[in-house]
């Protein structure tokens, strides 16, 4: 054993629960891997189509069975800041592959949407479902059976989880994830939030708000706050799918380019044609998934991953539950404070020691499984490093610093910011829900107040603008789950709720929708399961009902008798406006098939 007994116990429970499904998955992976070089099963006509557009040298290489071919799955588009830096990556990967004696082809593209653009708009109702579309699109790209390994170019919210699901579906292939990095620091995130609240109160105009937003989101790369996009990058590194130290290097820098080329060479090295064959379906196991959950809690990461990790694990035959995530949270300390959990951004986190420091601290104190397989080889210890650019233009690595560069951003395990993790599960007579506590001050973690019920975020915003919410209350926003309308994020509510809390009002949010990694200072019980449209008790709440949200005790309760709750009918909502427009009509089948949030909210 390499991890603490508490972590080992959760891992053993997951392993036992998953035994049958994992064994079946591994049988399928190894059966596919046993086909040797996959181009050898293609007919001459198949193969000719597969390399028709290649140059003469690549055609010659692909005509035989001994030259490895990398399939590139890319989420590039030039509208979104996080994915625009991927534009030159295929050429870099192809050059690096040729230099190493291999070939690389762009196997396919996947969609990449930005919740920051669609926030509060109809398009947000496609966001969660885009994860499963991305998994399917990746599968289509790889279905040509031309490849010995795959590299995945994706960064943001649903893109990386979708790519992981796709990669694990093709688990017989090695998989290397290549990040693009965060944008450089702009307007501090707390200042951006302050201007948003002023705008919500009508104290600044739209021009001032747009100026602040533009100074915050100002260049290529991921947003610098610690939301789902940057939580994705943390997960890929701590689960061993990135090369060590590569997650938070800024775009368009010599080191970023060197890391990209290195990742291509590593993908070639771990194919079945070499001596380090590392099919991703065998590499990612119960220990890797637990390491991801540990990292999520230790950094106060995105609540979206309480769904995505479950869906990702399921793609490998592993059955992860909210109870597992909650138990790990009780044993893992919070070591990072990155906005909205603090004032720093991810560039400050990286400068303070970043992933290398974090992984070393968690390993040394037994919170991580060290004895895992990664794309870099055996064990997680090689990830306790900093990546740097050597004089010859290659990547070199040095041990992570022994001390944090800023104890306000990154803490040692011996002196954590809090003794438990950043995410908790709430249970009670409304079902189960998720709360991110790392950004919520202790004095706001227990709220008892009457309910005010809304069936859309627009309804609540209208009440705020009308001056009807200047009081203590718990806002219940229901019919926002996967089956109702695709489970949009409700960040449009954040400024108004922040204003009310700053006025001294005791408030909280309860919803079957999402708030994501940007869940901030207002206590929010999200992902309430079952959702209102699926018979959930949240559909029985009425205006004025007393409620209690206790993030310390882990409870969410409607304070009425069981008999009264049982006697009520579920409320209904007119959802006809969510069924069409901005492509929503194409996703009617997804809404019908969508699973519960605590089961990954997947359509598979």
UniProtKB/TrEMBL annotation:
Its EC number is 4.2.1.12. The keyword Lyase applies. One of its GO terms (cellular component) is cytosol. Residues 408-601 form the Dihydroxy-acid/6-phosphogluconate dehydratase C-terminal domain. Residues 68-380 form the Dihydroxy-acid/6-phosphogluconate dehydratase N-terminal domain. InterPro entries: 6-phosphgluc_deHydtase (IPR004786), Dihydro-acid_dehy_C (IPR042096), DiOHA_6PGluconate_deHydtase_CS (IPR020558), ILV_EDD_C (IPR056740), ILV_EDD_N (IPR000581), IlvD/EDD_N (IPR037237). Its cofactor is [4Fe-4S] cluster. It catalyses: 6-phospho-D-gluconate = 2-dehydro-3-deoxy-6-phospho-D-gluconate + H2O. Binds 1 [4Fe-4S] cluster. [4Fe-4S] cluster binds at residues 156, 223. GO terms for molecular function: 4 iron, 4 sulfur cluster binding; metal ion binding; phosphogluconate dehydratase activity. It holds the Pfam family ILVD_EDD_N. It comes from the Bacteria. One of its GO terms (biological process) is Entner-Doudoroff pathway through 6-phosphogluconate. Keywords: 4Fe-4S, Carbohydrate metabolism, Gluconate utilization, Iron, Iron-sulfur, Lyase, Metal-binding. Pathway: Carbohydrate metabolism; Entner-Doudoroff pathway. Gene3D superfamilies: IlvD/EDD C-terminal domain-like. NCBIfam families: edd. Catalyzes the dehydration of 6-phospho-D-gluconate to 2-dehydro-3-deoxy-6-phospho-D-gluconate. Belongs to the IlvD/Edd family. This is Phosphogluconate dehydratase.
């Amino acid at each position: 054993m390499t991890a603490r007994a508490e972590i080992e116990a959760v891992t053993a429970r997951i392993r036992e629960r998953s035994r049958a499904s994992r064994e079946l998955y591994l049988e399928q992976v190894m059966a596919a891997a046993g086909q040797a070089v996959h181009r050898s099963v293609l007919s001459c006509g198949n193969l000719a189509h597969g390399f028709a557009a290649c140059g003469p040298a690549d055609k010659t290489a692909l005509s035989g069975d001994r030259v490895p071919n990398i399939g590139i799955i890319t989420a590039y588009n030039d509208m979104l800041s996080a994915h625009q830096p991927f534009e030159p990556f295929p050429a870099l990967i192809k050059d690096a592959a040729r230099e190493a004696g291999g070939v690389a082809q762009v196997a396919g593209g996947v969609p990449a949407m930005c919740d920051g653009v669609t926030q509060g708009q109809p398009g947000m109702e496609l966001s969660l479902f885009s994860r499963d579309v991305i998994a399917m699109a990746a599968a289509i790209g790889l279905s040509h059976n031309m490849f010995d390994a795959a590299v995945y170019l994706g960064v943001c919210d649903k893109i990386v989880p979708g790519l992981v699901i796709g990669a694990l579906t093709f688990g017989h292939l090695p998989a290397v994830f290549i990040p693009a990095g965060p944008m450089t620091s702009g307007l501090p995130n707390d200042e951006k939030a302050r201007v948003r609240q002023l705008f919500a109160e009508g104290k600044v105009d739209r021009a001032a708000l747009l100026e602040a937003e533009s100074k915050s989101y100002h260049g290529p790369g991921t947003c610098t706050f610690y939301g789902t996009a940057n939580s994705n990058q943390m997960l890929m590194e701590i689960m061993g799918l990135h090369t060590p130290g590569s997650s938070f290097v800024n775009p368009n820098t010599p080191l970023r380019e060197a890391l990209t080329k290195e990742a291509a060479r590593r993908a070639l090295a771990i194919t079945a044609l070499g001596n380090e064959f590392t099919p991703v379906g065998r590499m990612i196991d119960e220990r890797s998934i637990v390491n991801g959950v540990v990292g999520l809690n230790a950094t106060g990461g995105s609540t979206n991953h309480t769904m995505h990790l479950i869906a990702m694990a399921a793609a490998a035959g592993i059955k992860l539950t909210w109870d597992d995530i909650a138990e790990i949270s009780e044993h893992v300390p919070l070591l990072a404070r990155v906005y909205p959990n603090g004032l720093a951004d991810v560039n400050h986190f990286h400068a303070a020691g970043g992933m290398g420091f974090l992984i070393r601290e968690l390993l040394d104190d037994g919170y991580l499984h060290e004895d895992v397989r990664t794309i870099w080889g055996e064990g997680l210890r090689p990830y306790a490093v900093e990546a740097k650019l050597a004089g010859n233009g290659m990547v070199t690595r040095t041990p992570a610093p022994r001390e944090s560069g800023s104890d306000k951003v990154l803490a040692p395990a011996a002196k954590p910011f809090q003794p438990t993790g950043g995410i908790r599960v709430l249970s009670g007579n409304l079902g189960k829900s998720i709360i991110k506590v790392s950004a919520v001050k202790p004095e706001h973690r227990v709220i008892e107040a009457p309910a005010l019920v809304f069936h859309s975020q627009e309804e609540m915003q209208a009440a705020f603008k009308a001056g009807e919410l200047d009081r203590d209350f718990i806002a219940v926003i229901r019919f926002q789950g996967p089956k109702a309308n695709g489970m949009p994020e409700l960040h449009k509510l954040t400024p108004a709720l922040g204003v009310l809390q700053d006025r001294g009002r005791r408030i909280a949010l309860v919803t079957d929708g999402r708030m994501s990694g940007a869940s901030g200072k207002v206590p929010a019980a999200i992902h309430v399961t079952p959702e209102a449209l699926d018979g959930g008790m949240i559909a029985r709440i009425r205006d004025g009902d007393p409620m209690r949200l206790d993030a310390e005790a882990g409870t969410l309760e409607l304070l009425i008798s069981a008999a009264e709750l049982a006697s009520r009918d579920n409320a209904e909502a007119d959802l006809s406006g969510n069924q069409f427009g901005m492509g929503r009509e194409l996703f009617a089948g997804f809404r019908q098939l969508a699973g519960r949030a605590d089961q990954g909210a997947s359509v598979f």
